[in-house]
């Protein structure tokens, strides 16, 4: 009865149009009061939910992503990749995917990655004859892979909620699936571009390779420094985020000279506002998770689901459908906070590797970021392109199907995610 009350109040709050954090908080406070708990448990668990060392990386990676975006790193990376790839039918679609992967190795956030690439790539793609709907769809899909490619904010949150899956192991496990996801997007992008002749028109002057490489070298070094430092043990994932901020500020202020004191202050304010929203959701969702666990709601629900789905295959299919649908309406971090208390006991009962399970969940949520009707990343790129989201539907469905094939490959062959962490002694 209490479990039904907790879920019902939360769903009613969402249907009433309340913000996610408010809905979680109201449901948690009401259920704890009904169960006779002291209301001091609410602020105590809210603080405990965010007072975790690994979570310090989230505001730092958000700040790092904004610094790299506004310092001109994305523009220089586009020029270098364009010089490397050249000018041919569909070449700019390839550039968009490759640049998104590189920026994903810096920001760890899908919407931030999509916004940075869209602001630079959309004008040049449209000028070369790519439809706005196709361009916005491709960039949204490619940007969403940022939460799979390390460093990933989603992996950090997952590790905090599932201590058995460490951040270094998750980062290593996400590398190969992230590359596969990018390849899955490249195939339909190239096929569509060649069929319709996108980019076949007037040839533009190819940027000089040597010059563009030296201009982009500082951006290319960023993921090398971050991932290399993590691999060698020079710093922890949380310290890596601080290193990324310091490196980005150094490049923007002293190398490119594109950031001034006023610009840095604006970036700090914007990053602070976004980080506050994310951490507030995490804190209040921690109260929701604590209430469900303390009252035995999630364990009872997990046991019921396991008894209902005796087959691991049916259970896996059900979980993936649930995650795909949830990803269409909520962001990845919110879904982790709401569903992990329910799904982790199921994964443990089924004997699934929790690192592999985390990667599988994250790929599902990456797909949700560019799958209508909500599709946060697609919403951002559509707005930058100046079109309605409906104009992207005929294109984005091909990229959703391609990513689903990549997800299926990772599920059927778990070693795609687990081979690298085991090779590095993390599995």
From TrEMBL:
Transmembrane segments: 49-68, 80-103, 109-126, 138-161, 167-192, 213-234, 240-259, 271-293, 313-342, 395-420
Location of the TRAP C4-dicarboxylate transport system permease DctM subunit domain: 9-416
Any one GO CC term of the record: plasma membrane
Keywords: Cell inner membrane, Cell membrane, Membrane, Transmembrane, Transmembrane helix, Transport
Membrane-topology descriptor: Multi-pass membrane protein
Pfam family of the protein (one): DctM
Compartments, record wording: Cell inner membrane
Example of a GO MF term: transmembrane transporter activity
Listed InterPro entries: DctM (IPR010656), TRAP_DctM (IPR004681)
Functional summary from the UniProt entry: Part of the tripartite ATP-independent periplasmic (TRAP) transport system.
Family, similarity comment: Belongs to the TRAP transporter large permease family.
Description of how the protein assembles with itself and partners: The complex comprises the extracytoplasmic solute receptor protein and the two transmembrane proteins.
Matches recorded under PANTHER family: SIALIC ACID TRAP TRANSPORTER PERMEASE PROTEIN SIAT-RELATED
Stated name of the protein: TRAP transporter large permease protein
Naturally occurring in which organism (per UniProt): Tepidiphilus thermophilus
């Amino acid at each position: 009865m209490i479990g039904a009350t907790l879920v019902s109040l939360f769903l009613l709050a969402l249907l009433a149009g309340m913000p996610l954090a408010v809905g979680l908080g109201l449901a948690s406070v009401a259920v704890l009061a009904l169960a006779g708990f002291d209301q001091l448990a609410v602020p105590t668990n809210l603080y405990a939910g965010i007072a975790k060392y690994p979570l310090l990386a989230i505001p730092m990676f958000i700040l790092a992503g904004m610094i790299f975006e506004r310092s001109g790193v994305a523009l220089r990376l586009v020029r270098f990749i364009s010089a490397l790839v050249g000018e041919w039918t569909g070449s700019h679609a390839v550039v968009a995917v490759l640049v998104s992967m590189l920026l994903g190795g810096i920001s760890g956030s899908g919407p931030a990655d999509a916004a940075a690439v869209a602001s630079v790539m959309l004008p040049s793609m449209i000028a070369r004859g790519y439809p706005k709907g196709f361009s916005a769809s491709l960039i949204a899909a490619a940007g969403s892979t940022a939460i799979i490619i390390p460093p990933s904010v989603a992996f950090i949150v997952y590790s905090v909620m599932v201590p058995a899956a460490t951040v270094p192991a998750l980062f290593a496990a996400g590398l190969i699936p992230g590359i596969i996801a990018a390849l899955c997007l490249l195939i339909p992008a190239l096929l569509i571009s060649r069929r319709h002749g996108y980019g076949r028109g007037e040839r533009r002057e190819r940027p000089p390779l040597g010059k563009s490489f030296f201009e982009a070298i500082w951006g290319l070094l960023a993921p090398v420094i971050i991932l290399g430092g993590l691999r060698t043990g020079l710093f922890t994932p949380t310290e890596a985020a601080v290193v990324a901020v310091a490196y980005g500020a150094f490049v923007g202020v002293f190398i490119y000279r594109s950031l001034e004191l006023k610009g840095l202050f604006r970036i700090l304010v914007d990053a602070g506002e976004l980080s506050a929203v994310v951490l507030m959701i995490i804190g209040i969702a921690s109260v929701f998770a604590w209430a469900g666990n303390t009252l035995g709601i999630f364990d009872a629900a997990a046991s019921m689901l396991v008894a209902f789905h005796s087959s691991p295959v049916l259970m896996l299919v059900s979980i993936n459908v649930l995650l795909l649908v949830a990803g269409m309406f909520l962001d990845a971090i919110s879904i982790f906070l709401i569903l992990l208390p329910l799904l982790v006991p199921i994964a443990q009962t089924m004997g699934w590797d929790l690192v592999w399970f985390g990667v599988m969940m994250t790929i599902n949520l990456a797909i949700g970021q560019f799958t209508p009707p909500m599709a946060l990343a697609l919403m951002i790129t559509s707005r930058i392109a100046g079109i309605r989201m409906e104009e992207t539907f005929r294109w984005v469905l091909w990229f959703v199907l391609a990513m689903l094939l990549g997800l299926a490959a990772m599920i059927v062959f778990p070693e795609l995610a687990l081979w690298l962490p085991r090779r590095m002694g993390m599995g």
